[in-house]
Design brief:
Distance between the termini: 47 Å
Radius of gyration: 15 Å
Shape: globular
Number of helices: 4
């Protein structure tokens, strides 16, 4: 018996987990982070986005770029990432094309 989309779902889940862990690691170590100004601009864009999902513990506050479970199943928009983490990493991009990655040099951010 075969599970039609299980392999694809598993690959997406593993990829999302790996990218998420890398982002969390960068934030925890303070490596490759965007400037405060860029972070706030990105968060404002994300929280105003129609695909952003509210936090379970903070109704009215958007925490996720799309529904993570739906993204893993290949049925949702966005990337399923935490807005809090994703917006801090300089090299990240918006999956909807609303903001780009930046390079940080001397404390200043430049769009790549």
């Amino acid at each position: 018996m075969s599970c039609g989309g299980c392999l694809g779902t598993a690959k997406r889940a593993i990829g999302m987990a790996a990218r998420g862990a890398l982002g969390v690691g960068k934030v925890a170590m303070g490596v490759g982070l965007a400037t405060g100004e860029v972070i706030e601009q990105r968060r404002a864009i994300c929280r105003g986005c129609e695909i952003a999902v509210e936090c379970a513990k903070s109704p009215g506050r958007k925490c996720w770029c799309g529904n993570p479970a739906m993204v893993v199943m290949g049925k949702g928009k966005g990337c399923g990432c935490s807005i809090e983490i994703k917006t801090r990493v300089a090299s990240e991009i918006c999956p909807e094309g609303k903001w780009a990655s930046v390079m940080v040099e001397g404390g200043r951010s430049q769009v790549v």
